[in-house]
Each structure stands twice: as structure tokens, then as C-alpha cells.
Fold this sequence. Notes:
The chain is built from 14 helices and 17 strands. The protein has helices at residues 9-15, 34-39, 112-131, 137-152, 183-192, 199-205, 214-220, 225-232, 266-331, 338-366, 369-372, 376-391, 408-429, 481-493, and strands spanning 19-23, 29-32, 76-80, 88-96, 104-110, 156-162, 168-175, 209-211, 238-246, 249-258, 394-399, 433-441, 444-451, 497-503, 507-515, 518-519, 547-548. Strands 16-7-6-10-9-8-17 form a seven-stranded antiparallel sheet. Strands 2-1-5-4-3 form a five-stranded antiparallel sheet. Strand 12 (433-441) and strand 13 form a beta hairpin. The longest helix has 66 residues, at 266-331. The radius of gyration is 34 Å and the shape is elongated.
Amino acid sequence: MSASPLVGWDELAAAAPDGLAVLDCTGRFLRLNPAAAALLEAGTEGDLLGAPSPFALVEGAATCRAGLLEVRSDEQVAHWEPPAGPRREFAYRARRLPADPKFTVVSFRDVTDEWHRQRRIAAIAQTSIALASEGSLGSTLDAVARQIVQADGLAGVQILILDSTGRELRLMGSAGLRHWDGFLDRLLECRDRGARLCMLDTLRERKPIVVPHRWAQIREDPAWEPLHGYLGELNWDSFVSVPLMARGRPEGVLNAYFAPGQEIGGRTLEFLAAMAEQAALAVDHATLLQREREGARRDERQRLARDLHDSIVQQVFSIGLQANAVGVLGARGEVVPAEAVRTFADEVGALSRTVLADLRAMVHELRPSSSLRLGLEDAVTTLVKSTENRTGLGIRLVCGEEVDAVEPELAEDMYRIVAEAIHNVVKHAEATTATIRLAVRDHTLTAFVRDDGRGVAESGGRGAAPDNEDGAAAGAAGHHGYGLTTMRERAERWGGTMRIRSGARSGTTVRVVIPLPVRVPQAPPADSEGSRSAPSTVPFPEAANPAPSGS
Length: 551
């Protein structure tokens, strides 16, 4: 005697917590249970009958297993755009009816929030992995910005860091935003027109600042007119600025630009704060590493300079004295023929002078700080004269205005880049002339080093003008790797770039572009909080009346 079911299948479908739907052969809805209608944000089942569904008519799911940091399951994924509200993500399984394969049964559930949370966790974990890599600070912060954009679907992210003095900000990482060298210059122009950059409130208050509908405020403010076109390229609405804190001090800011309709809730701020903490760790690590490297370089320069002076220079000087002594003996007309002695003395003297000139040039290159105290132009001028005297290479130096206003640390790095490029011209290019151009334009420090020697193709390189070739440094294969890496690292340290172009008959050109930092003004007095003071920074603005994150 068979037992009759306690509840009919229609009643079970109506009470099921997951969505159930029947689709026809074209993927259109034929039947839906109440849970399905609710998930699809339809009033009743009848509102969706005959409408196309978001589900693919494919049985089963991908057989590949998800990685530890991948947001995937054994279910298929569909996206649904409701008439109102944000897009939803559904995890579903589909099966054809055995009795009539024209129809497909789909069970699905809403995983929007769950998978969003998993993406955030994966972004934090993958950012931690990126911090352990050997990439430059700029590439690491770019990776952090990309993870945020991908995890939360933001319009864009920028990461700015403070210099060692805590008075200047520099853009070091971004995602979702078109790179534009003139952005800082236009931002300063907006500040001069009266625009206020409230991201400085984040640095001063050391807490996140939330600015709803910021783009609408900027669009209506004539002070921001120089950036209306650029900011209008980004489809964004609200703005959040989060401080980068390390060892109890601010290291910079993380600026997030939200697409229209995106909500900024507590979990969103927690995620941005976690990613800002990762970025702050990267900045702190890079700062400590840079200090260690600078100390090691200083110690090595001093040691080499001392060794050169105490040993080689004195020995070469002694050779010169001996040559003079031999000259004196020859002049007396004794056993050694006088002419032979004079010839020997002239040769040894010339050799000693050449060696001394080379060694003095090495000492200057190892310790350029004394020249850099007078400015970048004087330091490079000294390098040019020393190189011309030693090698006979003709070098034309052109320096623009404000070059000497560059801060000392940046000036030393730019000097090193130019010195390495000229060294490579002398060593590999077989050039007769070279040109060095230094200039500050549109709030950017640029340097060009060009020679008329043989290019990469003639000297054994891989090609005739790739940007990843060491141009002037690539005279012989295998000789350019370390020099090129060092030059690039020095440029990337300041958020800059280096491009190298070389041709078999056109010589080699090294181009370095480094954006200059924007000076951060001192915090205004307490009674001037309401004024439209002009701060400075690279990311997009914040609100004239920023709302705290909890408001």
C-alpha cells in the first residue's frame, strides 16, 4: 500500500526558498514560483511570463575547480538588470525536462552580496601577495588600485603618497582613470581659481571623508572649469577619501570614485580602509627600503672615494714623480740617453695625467652632492666638462628655467640617470656628439639624452627602437641590464617614466619624464575652516562641505 504525498508539488514550489522557473526553448519564462518573482523584483509571476530570462540553456556547470582566491563555484552565473535598483548576480543550475526536452527547469538564488564580499576578501589577499613581490612602489600601488576597482566595480581609484617631509603629495597609483601628464598642472590652476581640495581634510583629520554627488558639485563650480573635460570622461558620482596610516602617521590618501547608483555603506568603507592599510604598508616598506639603500650607497661612495684617494691616486702621483726624476737624469747626459729619458718621462707623465683625470671624474660621479648643492644644472655642467676633457666627446647642454628649483633628492636621482646615460654613450655608442636637455614644463621635470652613435641594431641589441631596449646603454648585449634597471628604478621612484628609442642610423634617445610634487599647505587656523582655502593634491576633489562617513 503506497503512501500518498503530504503536500503537492505545486505547493512545494510555492514554498521553496530558492527561485524556480521553467523556460521554453528560446529561454523565455513559462512558469515562476513566488521566490523567483521576488528575486527578479517582479510584482507577480504574470509580469514576467514570456519575457527573456538571463539564464543560458546549458545543462550543468563548468567542470573546472575554482582557485583559492577565485570567486567561482560549481554553479553557473547570470546577471539581471531589474527595472529599478542595482544589477544582481544569480547562481543557478539548469536541467532539461526528461519528458519534454524543449523545456528547461532552472533553480537560482541571489549571490550578489555574498560574492561581492568574497571578491573583496580575494582583493585583500591578492594585494598582500603583490606587496611581497619585487615590483616598484608605483606598480604595487597600481595593483592595489586595480584590485579595488575590480572588486567593487568603482569608476576609478587614485593613491597619493606624502614625501619624507610630509608636505608634498605625489600620485603613485591609479586605475580606471586616463593617464594625463597635465592633470596636476590643471589641478593647481583650479586651486588658484578658488577651488577647494577637501582631501586634505582626510590627512588632517586622519579619518575617511565621504562626499555624496561630488561630480555634480564640481560640474556646477566654475573654479573647476580647467578639469571639467577631463573629469567628465569618468562616469562617476560620489567620492570617498581614506587616509593611508602607518606607524601612527599619515602616509597619503586613497581616493575612490563611485559610479552613479553605487551605495557607500559601512562594509564599503571597511573594505576601502583595509585596502588603504595595504597601500600604507607598501609605502612604509618602500620608505624603509629606500633609506637603507641610500645609507648603503652613501657608505659605498665614501669608501670608494677614500680607497681611490689613499691608494690609486697616490700611486699614480708617484709614477709622475718618478717620470720627472728620470727626466732630470736624462737631462744630465749620463749613461742613459737623454732623448730616451725625456720620451719616457713625457709618456709616463701623460699617462699619469690621464689616469688622474679619470679617477677624479670617478670620484666626482661617486660624490656629486657638493655640486648638487649649487643646483642640478651646475652638477650636470660639471659632468659635461669632465666627460669632454676625458673623452673628447662633444656634448651640448641645454637647461631650462626652474631646473635648479628641483628638490635635492630628485635632483640627485635625475643627475644619476643623466650620468648613466652619458656613461653608456661613451662606452658603447661610438658617438662624436651628444645632447642633454633638462627642463621643467607643466609641473613636470623632463630630461633628454641623445647621441649620434650607432644604435642598438648595429651594436648587437635586439632591435632598432623598442622602448625596452637600453638605447645608449645597449651598445653590447649583456652590458645594459643593470644600468637600465637602475635608471628606470630612479624614475619610477618619483612616479616617472623612462623611454628609450634607438635606430641603427639615428643614434639613441633617452627620455625621462617625472611629475613634480604638489606642495601641501599648512592646515588653516580653526576660525578659517569655512573659507575656500586652496589645498593641493593630485586626485580629484572632494566636497566643499564634506560629510563625515557616518552622516
